[in-house]
Amino acid sequence: MYYCIVKSSISTVSVRSSHSNRPNLYDAVVPALESRRSVRSFRQKRSRSQPLHTSSIHVEEYSDGTESTNRVPSMLISSDDSIEQFSLSSSSKETTDSGVTFSGHDSRLIMAKAICANVALLADDLPFSTGDFINVLDSTSHAALWFGMCADRTGWFLASHVTIIDPSAPSEWQNNPGFSHEMRQLRKRVLHELLITEKDYVTLLHNVVVGFVEQCRRHKELFSAALVESIFGNIEKLAVLHAKLLSELESAVDRKNPENSALADVFLRNSTNFEIYSDYCNNRMISCAILGKMLEDTRYVHFFEACRLLRGMPRLNLESFLLSPVQRMCRYPIQLRELLKATPVLHPDRKDLEKALVAMKGIASRVDRRVNRLESIQKLIKWQQNVIGFRGPNLIENNCRLLHFGEVSGKCFAKSALQWSKTVHLVLFDQSMVVCKKIVKKNECVFKERFSLSAARFADVTDGKDGPHAFQITTQNRSYIFNCKDADAKSEWLEKLRTRPSPNPPTVNEMRFALLSLKHR
């Protein structure tokens, strides 16, 4: 991957209009704006994208030496997401209000941390909160008013609202004996692995999008729009997310001393964006089922192989490429855990790294739970389809999980009158109970009846006239007594009834994913 050079040329523009022309709103808050007015009276009119300084803003060129097919093309990364490292050049040394001096030939990115919030009173002001990090792009136009970037916005702010982070100044944590040479080298290696694997992943996503998704869309005689979506899911969104993530990781790296880099905040800022992995992972079952059938047709086999060869990708099938996002999502917590082990307690990235590890583990856990939930819904649908003579609404309308099943001896009473007494196959779902007759020779179940557990009551029955190892379930119109084969089986039934989850029926999307994946199997 390599960066292109971007230079900005600045021209002198007319002087900002007098403050006397401002709306009366500002006159009402004169005390709060006094310091800012004194600064802005010296400022010239400028746009937010063109700070008033004569230094050029460069994007450093970098090449990893890989072949052109493995580079991350710019078409996937917008200007806001490009991997940039800004540098400011000046002919003399500048001393900031915080007392930190930067030499004119120093091309490092000037970073600052907000010591108080900056409220955007004008359209070209930069809003930020206490503790936010700001890239200072112009600190020369005026000593008290700087231009910078925070998150995805640029604007002007008071220099007194921030403190400069000088990477060259030795800090307490850097001189700490706990950050030994061995630990520095270990942290450097872990960071290197994190960045290299992220670059490889971004390259892979780009190759899949350009080499497979776009090619499939071009050949409409082979692929409909719905088929392309079913095969690839939202992988294009993943490509955009990780191009942005890689850009931010690259920008956060301390090139001179990589072990001093603080990358955890990048994961914290993007943590909510990783939720899109749920949809991708849920679609995997559909994708696998469709690809399994398609690869029985030699036309598709040759087509996918041609796509792979054109992108110069490894000798793997499409199924393996589409599995990579699932594997990558599981790898982040592992890499962050290794990075945390190589980070001393006083390192400025330590606390954020702990938070980032918790966040990424939480995301991976939520994605895993959603995938397991979808698999449970599929099992429920398949079970219903295999029951002979099933009646009533579909189970997935208010159930999402099969909890327990087994053979029991049952009795049913309606208004104290015995309705039936026989051995049945009892199946417990999270919100319903289904009674079936098991045909052992054919391994089939015949539907008998079902009842909701939403208003049902259950109780342990003491051994006596109702037989041993019994429990009772009472609904609005009927009462059931079930006898288990032993005390352990009875305890398991009662435990499952007591701990069944609260109502959480499948969503429309979950039903759609589950039904589609079963349809294509």
What would you note in describing this structure?
α3 (181-218) crosses α8 (298-311). The chain is elongated, with a radius of gyration of 32 Å. Among the domains are: 110-167, Roll (SH3 type barrels), CATH 2.30.30; 181-377, Dbl Homology Domain, Chain A (Up-down Bundle), CATH 1.20.900; 402-500, PH-domain like (Roll). The chain has 12 helices and 15 strands. The strands form 3 sheets. Strands 8-12-11-10-9-15-14-13 form an 8-stranded mixed sheet. The protein is an alpha+beta fold and 521 residues long. The longest helix has 38 residues, at 181-218. InterPro entries: DBL_dom_sf (IPR035899), DH_dom (IPR000219), PH-like_dom_sf (IPR011993), PH_domain (IPR001849), RhoGEF_domain (IPR053086), SH3-like_dom_sf (IPR036028), SH3_domain (IPR001452), SOS1_NGEF_PH (IPR055251). Residues 401-502 form the PH domain. Residues 186-370 form the DH domain. One of its GO terms (molecular function) is guanyl-nucleotide exchange factor activity.
Q: Shape from CA axes?
A: elongated
For the biggest β-sheet, the strand order reads 8-12-11-10-9-15-14-13
Number of helices: 12
User: Sheet with the most strands?
Assistant: 8 strands, mixed
CATH class of the domain at 181-377: Mainly Alpha
Radius of gyration: 32 Å
Low-confidence stretches: 1-107
Which whole number gives the mean pLDDT? 80
Can you tell me the CATH topology of the domain at 181-377?
Answer: Dbl Homology Domain, Chain A
Q: Termini distance?
A: 40 Å
Classify the beta-strand content into a percent band.
Answer: 15-25%
CATH-scheme architecture of the domain at 181-377: Up-down Bundle
What is the CATH H-level superfamily of the domain at 181-377?
Dbl homology (DH) domain
Question: What structural class results from the helix and strand content?
Answer: alpha+beta
Percent in helix: 25-40%
N to C succession of SSEs: HHEEEEEEEHHHHHHHHEEEEEEEEHH
Number of strands: 15
GO molecular function, one term: guanyl-nucleotide exchange factor activity
Pfam families: RhoGEF, SOS1_NGEF_PH
Domain PH: 401-502
Region (Disordered): 40-71
